Automatic annotation (TrEMBL):
The lineage of its organism: Eukaryota, Viridiplantae, Streptophyta, Embryophyta, Tracheophyta. One of its GO terms (biological process) is lipid metabolic process. This is Uncharacterized protein. GO terms for molecular function: phosphoric diester hydrolase activity. It holds the Pfam family PI-PLC_cat. PANTHER family: F21F23.12 PROTEIN, PTHR13593.
Amino acid sequence: MTLLLLYVHRPAIDTLVEIEVFLSANPSEIVTIILEDHVQTPNGLKGVFTKAGLMKYMFPVKNMPKNGEDWPRVSDMVTHNHRLVVFTSVESKEQTEGIAYQWNYMVENKYGDEGLEGECTNRVNSSALNDKTKALVLVNHFRTIQALKPHLMMACVDNSEPLLTMLEACALAAGQRYANFLAVDFYKMSKGSGGGAFGAVDKLNGELLCGKDDVHSCKVH
């Protein structure tokens, strides 16, 4: 269950409606949204998901794995139509709006330039990467944006061999756990070998599913 995060500047409702259309048209797909939450209106976050028609897909907080328990099987999530997993950065909203607080379930490495220095260490908000009471691992691998100008050309380099190297470093730092989620800039850009972000996702899914470095090597039972 690996996701490339996308940052967009548009009304939230527009993006959420697109997600509803996608989930409706693809009944076996699962979407995860990890929010840097700045919604201050009481129940405003839940309200926009309700308005977009997404609550019927929401994975219930009460079913979230506690203390490092295994995540439900994809087939079970599809069967129960729990196909939208949403995390918020605001702790109180888990109780008030029924939206999971990210740091109760996930660890994450440093983002921006600090996350490209060869070491994989946790960001300030996150528990230590090897905290196995948190079932999920998110790896960031993108540069700090300077003056709102993303490093377009450097993304080709960052999304190639250095990305695969960082995934291995973070797996080691996380207690031999490969990332469930991957965040990069310009995910279609890469150079050289390694397959870019798509190759990285194939590797992560392979490691998570069957312990192989390419999901295409996993046998279907």
